[in-house]
Amino acid sequence: SFTMNMYLFVYDLIQFCGHSWIFTNMIIRFMTFGKDSLADTFHSIGLVMRLCQSLSVLEILHILIGIDKSRLLPRFLQITERIIILFVVINSQEEVQGKYVVCVLFFLWNLLDVVRYTYNMLARMGIYYLPLTWLNFSLCIPLYPLSVLAKGFAICVSLPYFESFGTYSIKLPFPFTFSIYFPYVLKMYLLVLFAGMCFIIQNLFSERMAHLGTGNIKNKRS
After folding, report:
1. Which segments cross the bilayer (predicted)?
2. How many whole angstroms separate alpha carbon 62 and alpha carbon 5?
3. pLDDT recorded at residue 51
4. Interval 152-160 mean pLDDT
5. Which of 31, 63, 96, 133 has the fewest Cβ atoms nearer than 10 Å?
6. Which long-range contacts (CB under 8 A, 24 or more apart) does 211-220 make?
7. Would you give the distance in Å from CA 76 to the centre of its chain?
């Protein structure tokens, strides 16, 4: 419906503005302060990044209620990966926030999202530019695996701090003998992360073929 389409357009516009601000801020800070800006990335743009990623949870709801025709599982995995890395791994450990890997992650995420939300906004209005369509469905194929590697590296960097501070580790009192050692949970999640990467990459190739196949390109041109 027109109302739902307008709602999705406004949602995409808000996300585009947020990610564009982050991306532009990162570039300007790097051009101004050089490598010194990398260690301060989280403290400079972390709040807006957390807001944008929190808002992205709505995309799962959009799929569930049927106003977004994207596949649920791939989108769910991509969103939960970011939520876990940003809020659980990075936000909870101040020592990790100053690592260069945080800047790399934020750069990859925002580069992909600026392109994706620009494409989505124009698509809501029935406008398709072939170079933008190609970029949207092609750029994610090399950049998503790089972001997964950066996520894995962020987890590995955070493990010593989770071990020393005991963050999120739980030991139940007597008579229970059950305990959760959070570094083990993160190590197991690494396996899930890379297993999910294979599934998502396969889905990205399928989406690229569906939107950039010869027949679809001709239809969009016409």
Report:
1. 7-30, 42-65, 127-144, 181-201
2. 11
3. 97
4. 96
5. 31
6. 211/133, 211/137, 212/133, 212/134, 212/137, 212/138, 217/130, 220/128, 220/130, 220/133
7. 11
CB 149: neighbour CB atoms within 10 A? 16
Residue 175: exposure state from Cβ atoms within 10 A (0-12, 13-18, ≥19): exposed
Structure token digits, residue 94? 């101040």
Rounded mean pLDDT, 198-214: 90
Tokens of 88: 């659980």
**Contacts by residues 181-186 (CB-CB < 8 Å, ≥ 24 positions apart):** 183/159, 186/89, 186/155, 186/158, 186/159, 186/162
d(CA 217, CA 56): 29
Q: How far apart are CA 59 and CA 72, in angstroms?
A: 9
Q: Decide if 63 contacts 75 (C-beta within 8 A).
A: yes
The pTM (predicted TM-score) of the whole model is 0.90
Cα gap 175→22, rounded to integer Å: 49
Determine the angle formed by the axes of helices 182-212 and 130-138, rounding to 10 degrees.
150
Long-range contacts of 206-210 (CB under 8 A, 24+ apart): 207/137, 208/137, 208/138, 208/141
